[in-house]
Design brief:
The mean pLDDT is 83. The chain is mainly alpha-helical. The longest helix has 18 residues. The protein is 52% helix and 0% strand.
Amino acid sequence: MPVKSAALLRLRLRTELRKARMAAGLTQGEVAGRMEWSPSELIRIEAGEVGISVNDPRPLATAYGITDRRKLEELLDMARGSRRRPPTASSGRCSCRVCCRPRSTCGP
């Protein structure tokens, strides 16, 4: 997957998860029950009000019946990428904690 901004990956991840939930015919309440979350947690994730943990896509994919390994890896990659921090303006260096290259050449 090409490097994309963390914000774009967050949007894409929550959109993909919402589409998968709907394709599985599940309500937010049903998924929240399976995940042992409050329904408002899933509502906030799908609305983009809170981030998603890197640990959450795998059990959500199971709940949604996603068995394709490539699709699961794509969701996990989006979750990992969505947690990247933007470059810091003061240092001019990337703050992704993966590299120490100038931010203009960062692409972890």
